[in-house]
Amino acid sequence: MKASPLVVVFGALAALGGMAHADDECSDALIDPVATPLARGGLDAQRGACPRSLVMVGTGGSALIDTPGFHGEIDGVVSIGLRRRVGDHVELGLSVGQRYVFVQNAVNTASEWQTEPFVLTAAWAWTPSFALVGAAEVPGSRGTDTIHVAGSLTAIASLPVGDRTHLHARLGMVGDRAWSLAGTTGRLAFRAGTDVVRRLGDRWALDLGADVQAGWFDGFDAVVARAGVQRRFGRVVRGVFGAGAPLGGGDRRNVVVMLGVALDVTLWRRGFSAAF
Can you give the C-alpha Rg of the chain in angstroms? Predict the structure, then answer.
């Protein structure tokens, strides 16, 4: 049986990642890609392989607009997350948030606040260059009559390419099963993606990437082209911006954005970061 080209490429990256184990490889979060997730709760958020201790407060949103009639949906999200590095190889985390949804069609206009799912995450990093990351939604945490069991599993390889460039590759899946009085429905998608993060001096980092996903809409979902930029102000403050655009497929969203300020404050031996 022939192996998939994606599996072969990812296996080669993982093998190379096992040879890269410099102690300072995880020292600065500027090497990580800027996350612009599409799934609820950030189950498909992009990240590097390095385990980190983080506290994050983020804001972002997405738009699905039918431009001829200016109909569609605009979502805004405010989320709080925690990631805690445990030892050299393990990371545990959680996140929760609120979503504001505005919907406009030819007849009605509606808006409401929705509770984002409570998501638990765990990562195991074989080396600073290779990790397996899982995320799971706590059932019932959305505060609705519909019960969701959702999660993701992703393998990540992060490779230094020269002194100031990192290549991040990922391969994984994301799924959701929902139960309500109306019945049961399920979704499962497979995804693959890459990011190239380039540091420009000690203060700037640029991120270009793309993700391919299929299965969520019973076929090809989209190629998501993404870009991000980070700018360090002083020793502890980073400005962060990211945007992604789904192209083709069943995902009709026009754009996904994330904007924030990150504070990296070193405490204890492992470090502490706050982002908002």
Answer: 19
